[in-house]
Amino acid sequence: MTLFRQSRHYLIIGGIQWLVDWAVMVMLSHAGVPMVAANIGGRVSGALLGFWLNGRITFAGDDTRVGGRQLGRFIAMWLCTTAVSTAAMTTIDAQLGLKWAWMAKLPVEALLAMVGFVVSRHWVYRR
Questions:
Q1: Are residues 59 and 71 in the same domain?
Q2: Are 51 and 44 in contact (CB under 8 A)?
Q3: What residues make up the domain containing 1?
Q4: Smallest Cα–Cα separation from 62: which of 4, 125, 116?
Q5: What are the recorded Gene Ontology BP terms (predicted)?
Q6: DSSP the chain
Q7: Which of 46, 55, 68, 90 has the fewest C-beta atoms lying within 10 Å of its C-beta?
Q8: Separation of alpha carbons 64 and 94, rounded Å
């Protein structure tokens, strides 16, 4: 399993995840849901999709697995990145407004995805 192959799959699946995450966040916040809840709702929807796809496609190998232990590790990583993402989104919303928060979602999540790739590759999906 090459780093290039994993990176390519992670980017493709991550793009799909991000679109789901962003769309849910925008729909919820546009409907009047507070940014904290809207961002968490978006991240949950993207995470549900990404955990399974990345485990089965991106990081699939003899030394990896998609099971209970990996789900626990994924949840720990997800909680940390969600806290950072939500803090960033609520700060941007409070300081600059809702539309800026919508636009800032991509760069914030892209930075967190880089961290997520390394943590997933070396810890989350390991047996």
A1: no
A2: no
A3: 1-64
A4: 125
A5: polysaccharide biosynthetic process
A6: --HHHHHHHHHHHHHHHHHHHHHHHHHHHHTT--HHHHHHHHHHHHHHHHHHHIIIIIT-STTB--SHHHHHHHHHHHHHHHHHHHHHHHHHHHHH-HHHHHHHHHHHHHHHHHHHHHHIIIIITB-
A7: 68
A8: 41
Residues paired with residue 126 on neighbouring β-strands, in sequence order: 64
Q: Sign of dihedral through CA atoms 113, 118, 121, 122?
A: negative
> What is the token pair recorded at 52?
């399974």
Tell me the C-alpha distance between 88 and 82, whole Å: 10
Count of domains for the chain: 2
**56 and 75 both lie in a single domain:** no
- Residues 76 and 120 grouped into a single domain: yes
Tell me how far apart the 2 most distant CA atoms of the chain are, in Å: 47
Instruction: Please list the pLDDT of the chain residue by residue as tens digits (127 residues).
Output: 689 999 999 999 999 998 999 999 999 999 999 999 999 999 999 998 999 999 999 999 988 989 999 999 999 999 999 999 999 999 999 999 999 999 998 899 899 999 999 999 999 999 8
